[in-house]
Design a protein that fits this description.
Blueprint (H helix, E strand, L loop, with lengths): L3 E6 L5 H10 L4 E2 L8 E4 L2 E9 L1 H10 L4 E5 H7 L3 H4 E6 L5 E8 L8 H15 L3 E5 L2 H10 L5 E5 L7 H4 L4 E6 L3 H5 L2 E12 L1 E6 L6 H21 L1 E7 L3 H9 L4 E2 L9 E7 L3 H10 L5 E5 L11 H8 L2
Parallel strand pairs: 1-4, 1-5, 8-9, 8-10
Antiparallel strand pairs: 2-3, 3-4, 5-12, 6-12, 7-10, 7-11, 13-15, 13-16, 14-15
The chain binds adenosine-5'-triphosphate, 1-O-pyrophosphono-5-O-phosphono-alpha-D-ribofuranose and magnesium ion.
The site of 1-O-pyrophosphono-5-O-phosphono-alpha-D-ribofuranose has 10 residues, from strand 10 and helix 8.
GO molecular function: ATP phosphoribosyltransferase activity
Enzyme class: transferase
Organism: Roseibium album
Length: about 325
Amino acid sequence: MSKLIIAIPSKGRLQENTHAFFGRAGLKVDQPGGARNYRGAIKGLHNVEIAFLSASEIARALSEGSVHFGVTGLDLVEENISDPANNVHVVTPLGFGPADVVVAVPKAWIDVESMADLSDVASDFRSRHGRRLRVATKYVNLTRAFFARHGIADYRIVESAGATEGAPAAGSAELIVDITTTGSTLHANNLKILADGVMLKSQANLVASLNADWSVTALAAARAILDRVAAEEAARGIRLVKAVVDDRTQALRSVSKVGAIQRFSESDDANRVNVLCPKDAVADCAQLLIEEGADTVTVETLDYVFSRENPLFTPLKEKVGG
Ligand SMILES: Nc1ncnc2c1ncn2[C@@H]1O[C@H](COP(=O)(O)OP(=O)(O)OP(=O)(O)O)[C@@H](O)[C@H]1O
Ligand SMILES: O=P(O)(O)OC[C@H]1O[C@H](OP(=O)(O)OP(=O)(O)O)[C@H](O)[C@@H]1O
Ligand SMILES: [Mg+2]
């Protein structure tokens, strides 16, 4: 029996939000011995083991199949995993860690605004200087693919491990490809993003490895985790709306137009309605119920909405067999 292994960021900007994400799903990540212990557990789930890794190590572990699930940035999935479509399955985006991978050039290049302009500069540069334009980046694979798509071949990649934005000023490259969120690092280094130079819009994702050992035990644990995650996700978009109306059947028909549905049959009071309503339609739903005779309509937020069909688990199960 092999446990389900989940890799979560041990440091960096995704760490805190990852703990919060599992917490919202009612899953408490335990790191016995504190931040220096690289193995942990989830309280109450005995067939789950947590591996604490850096965000880029998580992408590699998913690719190898040494972990079943990982939380990491889409940029790292696309950069560090060859043929991601056949090696990993993106379970769900997590709504945090937004960042764009972009092509940025010195602001002083006033007539370079697009990838087409850059293409011209690259050819000119080569004939004028007898060497190729240098692009500093750690996103080597993403850069190659993106530049090829724009027909740019006259360039050379200078691999950069950190402080990439400093490369043009330091003279080690002419332009860069890097990740940005607020843009303040680019701005501080007098760089601008090309108009069509956004290569990838990234955020943190829950990702499954297709190469891991998906034993019956691991798959059952995955289902338990994804049930909670899906239930929490569903609850965030839904409100419980309650009212007493003149005619329940007619009221339910009316609110079904805004997507509200009755989930529980009430035998006690023939005029009471309890409906689950999409969050954005709550005001319309309340209005319709008042038209159906309600004096008061109350709206409650929910912690979880569990369903027999799990939209996160079903596609995973299809991919890993089981
Ligand atoms: N402003 C940002 N800059 C860089 N990365 C960001 C930003 N916002 C979100 N991210 C995401 O966080 C991921 C990890 O970045 P972070 O710098 O936190 O990790 P790290 O601790 O440097 O990890 P590693 O040592 O593996 O590089 C990025 O790959 C990206 O997906
Ligand atoms: O657009 P901004 O909001 O300014 O953020 C972008 C910067 O943040 C990241 O560096 P990080 O701080 O992670 O340092 P690192 O390169 O050492 O990982 C990234 O590599 C950029 O340099
Ligand atoms: Mg970083």
